[in-house]
Amino acid sequence: MENLVDIKLKNARNRVEALKGFYNHLMFYSIVNIFLFIVRGNILQFFQNQVTDKNFIDWVDWNILIVPIFWGIGLLFHAAKVFQYKLKFIKNWEEKQLKNFLKED
Hints:
By secondary structure, the protein is an all-alpha fold. It contains 3 helices and no strands.
């Protein structure tokens, strides 16, 4: 009986650590991207004063904007893993496979 309690406690601790990791990830995502959007105007103005190539300025602007997009996608995958979210088609596939295996046995 103690082994079952120990296993449940270990699983609960692992879930809490995973949640803490996700919330830290979310906090850093928010802080860094807020900072990027605040300084974005200053960075673009600096490059507009230093560089005359408009393509370069557009490249810098897109790179600043792409960071939150791709990082956000990674954050969504992290959230899906932590909160054990499965897409509907994956659940349906699992259910079909279980039914098939039950029919075979």
